[in-house]
Amino acid sequence: MTEGEEIHLAMLSASRSPSTVNKGDLASEAHTADSMNGITGDPKYSHEIFGSSSAGSFMRQIQTAINPSMDTSPSHPRGKGTVTRGDSPRAQPAYSGYEKSTLLLLPPKAVADSLMQVYWDYDWTLYPIIDRGQVEETYESLWTSGDAMNISPLRMSIINVCFALGCHYAPLILPKERRDTGDCFFSRAECLYNKAKDGPSCERVQCLLLFGVYLQSTKNVFQCWMTVGEAIRIAQSLGMHLPEAEISSQPVSHREYRRRTWHGCVWLDRVLSATFGRPGMIPNWLFSSVPLPSMIDDEFFQDQIEGSERRPDGQPCIMAFMGKAIELYRILDDVLVQLYLTCNPREEEMESKLPHILELDSRIQSWVKSLPSHLQIQTAATRNTIVYRQATVLRIHSLHVRILLFRPTLVRYCRRGAPLYTEKPDVSTDPSLSEVMLFQCPRMCFRFAHELIEIFNLNLDPKTLGGPLPVWWYSVFYVYTAATTILVERFLEARESAANSESAASQAWNAAIHVLRSYGALSDCAQRCVAALEALYDNLSLNNRKKGNTSDTRDAAPDRDSFLGLYNHLNQPEEMNGPGLLPLTFDDLVWLDSILEYE
């Protein structure tokens, strides 16, 4: 970073508001709706959707039945008010002198341009939630008009979140300074959001979704959870979850950003449900109520109606990624529901889960075959950095899902007195398909963990911490998950013979630790993950040396106590550094402890 482009954190700082929740200026709707009855007056005065189960909708149906001339159907308002691409300019509250010098402060143009560009290239190409054309138009006007006071605070909030997310990718900011710099922009974005007095809108949903994405990199777990929940509720109040027959007359651009915004809600709902281990807000039947975003890039909204893997100019479609990623997250949701959230994995027989594993694995295979050629890592064009990154990220996502799919079989494999790791199951006398599956599933889990770690080891730039990879908080989560699987593989190898430092498992383990240590420059969460993994490894190695090859379970109690102590120490609430990035989760404890129990 040059001296003239240095970002001064003190200049960017702004007071952090306690919450992103904004009640909005809903005075115009107060006489037509309430929180218990829905709309009680004329629905044309409200932009919100109230379904047929609401008392107000029921009364309108009765009025229509008695007097058809009073028909107020449809209850779902059409047109621009329901799902707009953005808020139209409104009279905004005046900024105080202090707010003008803080909330409307911009970094030097060269720095701002760089932050916006890396946001568009690295974040928006994976999650194209906001309307790029509108935001870019507003951003350019900041430098041409010279007066940011005439721009909606909501739009200014979005621009500042883009700055904040761009900080995580920006090569002009040192890795150790990226988080603090991004936090300054995000604090300002929160303040601007809370000054926006607009009612519910598509742009407000998009802004909250960006907040949720950024909050995943912070310690504000509760705020992240509630912010995404608020975005989903606003989207539902606008009817964004309804079938598209209601807005069929809208332009392609409106249709596509409606789809992208709603499925952005679905995506973050699935992600946070998985990382927090909590039920999602959006039921599966709403997943398909709105079609996935079409494979139409923004530049061709005027030229295309139907999507295609190739754009009219012959280039691969950038928007193909989002639809395929959301399809995979739906499979992930089913993996979690069927294998992790429905029962205690230590009490249910694994054989009863094998049909689910087969069915889900088949769905993943079908999903892989359905990928456009430019999103398959084997055939992706490396010269197109955006497309190659999309293909790599999808491969990493799919490997992570398959690790979670097969991981429950590791516990069963280790607890049931399975044959030695290097031997094959004896099926010569009484063949059993379940025995063969329980033998092969753990090995597939190990194989996917090896590949995932190898992708990071080959593609991560140790200096800039960049590369064709997910953003760092997802990367740490994926590598940590894979490393816990490799830990079991190393333990199984050491159980049978002396540990071999040249084995594939040892090499994968060392590579995972190296990657996590590299990410430690960005977050102390990665450093804690390394400490947790090394503590677990030392504990398992000590356990193996103490007992040799004996199967005396009496010696396992102290080791389980050690795991409980380690779990309690590492998972204090104040130590949380982002959703899903705990150094040791309860699920990890259960299945690793189960292995010791067998020993």
TrEMBL record:
Protein keywords: Nucleus, Transcription, Transcription regulation
Record region (Disordered): 67-92
GO MF, any single term: RNA polymerase II cis-regulatory region sequence-specific DNA binding
Designated name of the protein: Xylanolytic transcriptional activator regulatory domain-containing protein
Any one GO BP annotation for this protein: positive regulation of transcription from RNA polymerase II promoter by galactose
Ranges for domain Xylanolytic transcriptional activator regulatory: 224-299
CDD domains per record: fungal_TF_MHR
Cellular component, GO, one term: nucleus
InterPro entries, per the entry: Fungal_SecMet_Regulators, XnlR_reg_dom
Keyword rRNA-binding carried by entry: no
Organism of origin: Aspergillus arachidicola
